[in-house]
Amino acid sequence: MCVSGNRASRLMQLCAVLALSAALAGCVSNSQQVRPKGPDPYFVAMYGAKSEEKFPLPATDISKVEPRFLRQQVPYVTHEPPGTVVIDTENRFLYLVQGGGMALRYGIGVGKAGLEFEGEARVGRKAEWPRWTPTSDMVAREPERYGPLAGGMDPGLRNPLGPRALYLYQGNRDTLFRIHGTTEAWSIGKAVSSGCIRLFNPDIIDLYSRVPEGSRVVVLQAEPPMSQPMDAPMSTAADGSGSLSF
């Protein structure tokens, strides 16, 4: 009778353990089912509204953006020194080189085929909430679209340069290419602009705060950086305010 009683006791204990395991499994399953879908809250906060700006910026919609295009620190092996901006147009990334084999990586939108910039430049000028003026070539190419804007567009939420712009120079010549913001979040990761490098508005604000004038910029297409004369001939806008972007 004692042996039988011990067996019964052990059987009851085993049943209790199995019941508890099933209950815990149910809790885990339920928690997985109710977990909200969508971007990581960390990135949602990173790309939230910026009410402190001169023109308050609404939150950036990243719900349909591939996570790899969101700002993040990543391992990055390069011979470029810290502080260099490396733009990988093929993979749609901009890297701000840091020490220790790391870099800050930003997703970008790039120029359409035939209009891309390639080579070395420097940040010759920086501007917060810049004014934008289409180039004469842009007006000639698409007069109906750019003609009414030939006199320029004031800063604001509709301005295609966004809240910040970094102007790329070679020597003392303005290349007309910019690194700037965009209100078209869907365009990050794509080749849609007229040649410039566009970032999410929160990203260009972040990059702007980290990159001083004079910083070296290397723009790659599908090959390693090239040593290119910094004073190579480039066409410039008459008023120096033009930009190959929109």
Automatic annotation (TrEMBL):
InterPro entries: LD-transpeptidase, LD_TPept_cat_dom, Transpep_catalytic_dom. This is L,D-TPase catalytic domain-containing protein. Residues 83-220 form the L,D-TPase catalytic domain. It comes from the Bacteria. Residues 1-25 form the signal peptide. GO terms for biological process: cell wall organization; peptidoglycan-protein cross-linking; regulation of cell shape. One of its GO terms (molecular function) is peptidoglycan L,D-transpeptidase activity. One of its GO terms (cellular component) is extracellular region. Residues 224-246 are annotated as: Disordered. It holds the Pfam family YkuD. CDD domains: YkuD_like (cd16913). Keywords: Cell shape, Cell wall biogenesis/degradation, Glycosyltransferase, Hydrolase, Peptidoglycan synthesis, Signal, Transferase. The active site is at H180, C196. Pathway: Cell wall biogenesis; peptidoglycan biosynthesis. Belongs to the YkuD family.
